[in-house]
Design a protein that fits this description.
It contains 19 helices and 19 strands. By secondary structure, it is of the alpha/beta class. The mean pLDDT is about 95.
Length: about 575
């Protein structure tokens, strides 16, 4: 057990465990110390120096995010000298910043802007030469504008230490230092998976998603185009945050109402697509299990994860499920079954997916995800982009009356909802696989063993007379460990779920961005996950194979799960790809 240390911060006595930083100690007694580069447990390097404080008896300032407390220490966090030093630091950062706040996507949610307001910055004292960087907009998912970069390195730490990718780092030295890729190439040409975790880590607007709102507006307004929008499960528990609602508020009804106000012809639920995914993936798993073929089978719902395995572990690709992700399956059904049923020319249908994910923008344009020469999905909007469209349309979101998804593609199960959390795909699959294999109703529908925040969760599930070993991993750093086990022949499990984003889709790269201070004070992941599980608990139907819409479409159109038509529309293939496509 660690010893306790007594110190004084701004005349308040504090007792904390040995090894605590001054920043953490101050927080415990309600004293706020400003930070910029600090990201708890991810980027604790003291580079920006905004968190500096005075310690009596010492020359200069201490960097509170890395300085450990000491017995008897007396700390001042807002003396005139400290405040002036912070203003000078802020001034120097702003002197090399683009400062086009009014047209920046982070306007109103920028940590640098917040500090400028807090310290009453009304001008920049140290105007001088600015770095000029090219804007990298070549990828289908992410735009880099490092004219706005403040060299905090938060994006670098997330990419390197959490996701274990290392697609970006600091290059050059001195005034020429910047965050870039190997050879200063585009993200499109290096080992980036487009997970978007760097965007969420960025305190300013140096990183953002590739905007698709203009394209969406153009097609909504075209009277010749039949626009259909589908929304992923995780969007409904995060969208409200963009309008001031508490973290984790389920705004499904208001979201649907807003989408109809925007002008979409039909509003469908991607959760229905998730139910189809479970039917196909579950059927594929049962077949592999019986034939002992390419086990363990790995889920393929996360496009960032799929790009990662294609580039880093191509030898493990045979283990990957051939199923498309839920929104791609749904897009294929909309342009075939639904188009035929409604008598609409599929060439006139424009499918928009609202996703919590940046990598879905990359996935959407994969050539493998086409039918009859048409992409299954035509446009992907992030949760943030949808919020911007709602605001642009001057819709008072919070005041909207709840509305329901349109028939017949709006009925989904609780199993489809929990796709948004880590372990959700696994749990949904186990519910259906168990009942299909045994022919008996489950006594206990929740599979608690695959829930939770642990980076890797292992469990053994009894199905009939057979024990099924499963593993769930979220975050690509954890996925790497599972891939090494499979590659080295050390995997003793049959079924694997992997999500690229830590926490799963609820924490996707396209979700509302929270400041480092909010993250430190609120467990965002927990609140959004609780909302997802509540949706499941309150659902009338909680097993994918019981969805009446799904059963009807199989009967009328697809035939049996895993059959010829289902394979044509709902399955695909993946291929090895190069990590780098560098300029010669």
């Amino acid at each position: 057990m660690s010893q306790e240390v007594k110190l004084t911060i701004d005349d308040k006595e504090v007792i904390v465990p040995e090894g605590t930083t001054i920043l953490e100690a101050a927080k415990q007694v309600g004293i706020d110390i400003p930070t910029l580069c600090f990201l708890k447990d991810i980027n604790e390097i003291g580079d920006c120096r905004m968190c500096l404080v005075q310690v009596e008896g010492r020359r200069g300032f201490a960097t509170s995010c890395i300085q450990k407390v000491e017995e008897g220490m007396i700390v001042h966090t807002h003396s005139p000298e400290v405040i002036e030093a912070r203003k000078v630091i802020l001034d120097l950062i702003l002197s090399n910043h683009q400062r086009d706040c009014l047209t920046c996507t982070r306007n109103g949610n920028c940590e640098l802007q917040n500090l400028a307001v807090k310290f009453n910055v009304t001008g920049v004292r140290y105007e001088g030469e600015k770095n000029q960087h090219k804007i990298d907009d070549l990828s289908p998912a992410i735009v880099r504008d490092f004219n706005k970069c403040i060299l905090c390195r938060r994006c670098v730490s997330v990419c390197k230490n959490v996701q274990k990718i290392g697609a970006i780092d600091c290059i050059n030295r001195g005034f020429s230092s910047c965050i870039s890729t190997v050879g200063d190439n585009s993200l499109n040409d290096v080992n980036c998976t487009f997970c978007g975790q760097c965007i969420k880590a960025c305190p300013v607007g140096a990183l953002k998603e590739k905007d698709s709102t203009e394209e969406a507006w153009k097609n909504i307004k075209d009277p010749e185009i039949y626009t259909i929008v589908q929304t992923a499960p995780a969007v409904r528990v995060a969208l409200g945050e963009e309008f001031g609602l508490p973290i984790g508020t389920n705004v499904k009804g208001k979201m649907v109402a807003a989408l109809k106000r925007l002008g979409f012809d039909k509003v469908f639920d991607t959760n229905t697509g998730a139910d189809f995914t479970i039917m196909e993936e579950g059927t594929e798993f049962i077949k592999r299990l019986k034939e002992n073929d390419n086990l363990p089978m790995i889920t393929s719902c996360s496009p960032g994860w799929v790009k990662y395995i294609e580039a880093n572990y191509p030898e493990n690709l045979p283990h990957l499920s051939s199923c498309k992700s839920p929104h791609e399956m749904f897009g294929a059904l909309i342009k075939t079954y639904y188009a035929e049923k409604m008598g609409i020319d599929p060439a006139k249908i424009y499918v928009v997916s609202v996703m919590p994910c940046i990598a879905k923008k990359f996935e959407r344009q994969r050539t493998e995800l086409q039918n009859n020469g048409m992409y299954d999905v035509d446009c992907v909007l992030t949760t943030r982009e949808l919020a911007r469209m709602i605001k642009q349309a001057n819709i008072e979101f919070v005041e909207l009356e709840d509305e329901a998804f349109d028939d017949p593609m709006g009925e989904a199960t609780g199993a489809g909802a929990i796709f948004g959390v880590t372990g959700g795909v696994m749990e949904a699959a186990l519910r259906s696989v168990s009942e299909i294999l045994t022919g008996q109703e489950l006594e206990k529908i929740n599979f608690e063993a695959v829930r939770g925040e642990e980076g890797i969760k292992r469990a053994t599930v009894r199905i009939g007379e057979q024990d099924i070993k499963v593993v769930v991993a979220h975050g690509l750093g954890n996925a790497q460990k599972i891939m090494e086990e499979i590659k080295n022949g050390e995997a003793d499990y049959q079924f694997v779920e992997i999500m690229a984003c830590p926490g799963g889709c609820i924490m996707g790269g396209g979700q509302p961005i929270k400041t480092s201070k909010t993250r430190a004070n609120v467990d965002v992941r927990k609140k959004r996950a609780e909302a997802m599980y509540e949706i499941d608990e309150k659902s009338q139907i909680r097993k994918s194979h019981k969805n009446p819409v799904l059963l009807k479409i199989y009967e009328e159109y697809l035939g049996e799960p895993g059959g010829h038509m289902a394979h044509e529309l709902l399955h695909t293939h993946y291929h090895a790809r190069e990590k780098y496509n560098l300029k010669k």
